[in-house]
């Protein structure tokens, strides 16, 4: 081992990896126009709803004023009950909403619109209701970091654009922490974990208000921890059993199909 490798080993390779991960994650977060991730408006609305203590989304039959990109409903679907959310209208300006059937890259956002978004005061009294048909079923733990960021943003009365980026930053930090501890649990797999975490889709989802940020982070951490427990010859401690219960709940809340990750322990 040469001197450079010794310095890296002493400092901690995982710290260098997480620094690189955060650097590119922040670039994606601030360079990507708001709400340009698929389904992000409905994810944002659900996270905001949870931050206000509304854990069960109400079902509505009447078409709300705001559609969050779900404006093309068939006549048959117009009579069905769908999940909805009420959010301050200043949080999701109309110029940032695009039809889900269109290519989001074709909807241009000017720098002036972005500056206006960052400087717009939050007005919680003026609200609009919109459809969140695919995210209304997501349980609160799935949006934990974003909901906490939204809560404090509202308490501090921050501007709408700042709240949006704060929610995206909270997701990125949560995923970075999960990746960091994944490397701690499986030190021999640090390079592989880093490569997987640097995949473009992983980075994009991590630096967003989407529930996929928590889902990816928990799955990453859960897989690494379960594999480390599998390699251990000692019996499970009470803390580890409790951790497995929490992990099972988080995986079930994220997406039930990911519960199969628990089979890694066998």
The beta-strand count equals: 3
Q: Gap between N and C termini, in Å?
A: 35 Å
Strand-and-helix sequence, N→C? HHHEEHEHHHHHH
The gross shape turns out to be globular
Overall pLDDT, averaged?
82
Helix content estimate: 40-55%
Low-confidence stretches: none
Strand content: 5-15%
**Biggest sheet strand line-up:** 1-2-3
Count of discrete alpha- or pi-helical segments spanning 4 or more residues: 10
How many structurally independent domains? Answer: 1
Q: Rg to the nearest angstrom?
A: 20 Å
Structural class: mainly alpha
Mind describing the biggest β-sheet?
A: 3 strands, antiparallel
Task: Give a brief outline of the structure.
The chain is mainly alpha-helical and 266 residues long.
Task: Provide structural commentary.
The structure is a single chain. By secondary structure, the chain is mainly alpha-helical. The protein has one domain (3-265). The chain is built from 10 helices and 3 strands, in the order αααββαβαααααα. The chain has helices at residues 3-11, 13-31, 40-51, 111-119, 144-155, 160-185, 190-197, 200-206, 212-230, 238-254, and strands at 59-60, 82-88, 127-131. The protein has a 3-stranded antiparallel sheet, covered by helices on one side. The longest helix is centred in the middle third of the chain and has 26 residues, at 160-185. The protein is globular.
């Amino acid at each position: 081992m040469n001197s450079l490798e010794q310095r890296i080993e002493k400092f901690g390779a995982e710290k260098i990896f997480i620094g690189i991960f955060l650097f590119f994650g922040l670039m994606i977060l601030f360079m990507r126009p708001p709400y340009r991730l698929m389904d992000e408006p409905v994810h944002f609305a659900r996270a905001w709803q949870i931050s206000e203590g509304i854990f069960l989304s109400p079902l509505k039959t009447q078409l709300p004023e705001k559609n969050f990109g779900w404006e093309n409903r068939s006549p048959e679907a117009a009579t069905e009950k769908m999940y909805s959310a009420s959010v301050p209208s200043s949080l999701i300006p109309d110029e940032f909403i695009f039809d889900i059937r269109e290519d989001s890259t074709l909807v241009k956002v000017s720098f002036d619109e972005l500056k206006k978004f960052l400087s717009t005061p939050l007005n919680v009294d003026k609200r609009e209701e919109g459809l969140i048909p695919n995210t209304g079923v997501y349980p609160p733990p799935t949006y934990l970091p974003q909901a906490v960021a939204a809560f404090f943003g509202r308490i501090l009365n921050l501007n709408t654009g700042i709240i949006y980026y704060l929610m995206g930053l909270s997701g990125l930090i949560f995923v970075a922490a999960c990746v960091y501890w994944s490397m701690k649990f499986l030190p021999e797999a640090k390079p592989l974990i880093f490569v997987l975490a640097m995949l473009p889709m992983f980075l994009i989802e991590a630096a967003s208000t989407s529930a996929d940020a928590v889902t990816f982070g928990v799955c990453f951490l859960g897989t690494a921890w379960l594999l480390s427990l599998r390699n251990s010859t000692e019996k499970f401690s009470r803390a580890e059993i409790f951790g497995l219960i929490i992990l099972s709940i988080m995986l079930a809340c994220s997406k039930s199909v990911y519960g199969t990750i628990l089979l890694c322990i066998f």
